Amino acid sequence: MNRIINKSLCASIAVATGLMAASCGNDNFNLFPTDSMQIETYLTNDEEVQNVLLDNYYYLRTVSQNLIYINSLATDEAYDWQKNNSNDHISLNLSTWNATLGLTDEVWSDSYKIINRSNNVLEHLSQVSEQNRSRYEGEALFFRAYAYFNLVRLFGAVPLTTSVVTNYASLYDYDRSPVDKVYAQIDADVARAVELLPQQIKNASETGRATSIAALALQGKALLTQGDYSGAESALKRIIDFSQANPDLLGLEDDPSQIYASDNAIGKEVIFAAQFNNGSTVINNPLMKATIPAGVPQSQPSYVYPDGTASTIKTSVGNSTLLMTWELFNALRADKADKRYHQLSYNGIYDNGSLSRQTDEVDTTPEGYAYMPITLKYYDFANQGLTTDRSSNDNIIFRYADVLLEYAEVLNSTGRADEALAYLNQVRRRAGVADVAGTEQLALAIENERLLELNFEGHRWFDLVRTDRITSVMEAHFAHRTQGLSATLQVSDNGLTVENEQSVSGTPVKWKWSGQQTAVLFPIPYSQIQLNPNWQQNDLY
After folding, report:
1. pLDDT averaged over the chain?
2. pLDDT tens, 454-478?
3. I need a labelling partner for 175 at 20 to 30 A (CA). Which of 31, 228, 255, 454 fits?
4. Does residue 275 contact residue 208 with C-beta atoms inside 8 Å?
5. Cβ 149 vs Cβ 222: under 8 Å
């Protein structure tokens, strides 16, 4: 939680990744819960074991990126502008995905790479000095728990392996382990990680590595997801107690924009994040490009500062795969005092390809071209001199505001609504908006606050599935007509088909789980079903 971007850690990851690429030679096994490693000549000392461990931070980037896409595009947070013909992103947005979905296939593959590397570290702890052994063990357990937690939430039952697979022929015999067994392993791993990991990172060259606070954040979220409110309360309260005892190390930033700023990387609010290099042209965050619409004319600045200065970064760099829905934008600006609206959203890019009309929900140019709202969470204001989308903003996985809102949810779910208000309102006060005064419909107020606070950070899908609200929210989203929006933009925004910008209603797409009583899960990737034909695919696929 030190306020310094860790270029040393990024460099170490790059070295480790290059090494692992050389030592993981059989691409076929990327499809399985393992990949081939030359362990006979490697993993013999602290440095080599740490290199394998650091490789997990490399895959953390791609896993977190794809989880942000999934949680945003498959809900009411984001849409893909369909003119880019990006099938994966469009199918997520329109609830038409199937087992060939590439984003979830990548999460599966990269998660098992993390698991296999963690298992290798755990099996070679005898080669590690006593000084580093506990920490390496805790870090490996943390990553294994994190990977399985994402897998079980997305796919349900998944193959569970806690040892390195040496007989590759046995991979075909792996079965999907029951959900409760996977969670039992997650709970055991993360509980041990809490014991072994340091509370804080004191060496600046290691800033951003996992701590016991990060493990507690994972533990609290996992237990909350399982409905274990007592366990979740205990884990989350330990984080809050640490913050109260160490406010300079952990707590809410004064301004929301500082949470994401690349020149404040791993600031005091961030508990754990996938890191990118400040100013790097190699290890940069592609989500900046994704959140910029390629509006025509493409000579438009992607941002204009309040003083009228235009950004050097043009809309031509955007690929339009992760754009903010008008619903979310209008929710953010519903309270004009909300700092998150002013600091973390922008509504100044237009496209001249279709006509909209000015309404309370849509802003247009004098010619009638709709402005397309975007999130600024991945917009790197510190790197304007690069004139391109070389963002070094991090993908935040756990932060303190998330902990406060989860704690409010736990308290409200256990009959202590009055206590829950205090934690909900801490987040609202930082945003500059009025307190929630009453406890009526407090669960919905917490849900809405999580949307306003944590959008585009990889939470929305998981939140709505956890609270069993996903179907009602998505049916309402698909039916919502953004008044005044052109037919072209409306169908991209939420799939609703309308005649033109004057239409007040339209024909919605169908939400995949409408009228269904089955678990809300993504399909097991097609590649896995082909290799393991005895596996039963998830319902609806």
Report:
1. 91
2. 999 999 999 999 999 999 999 999 9
3. 228
4. yes
5. yes
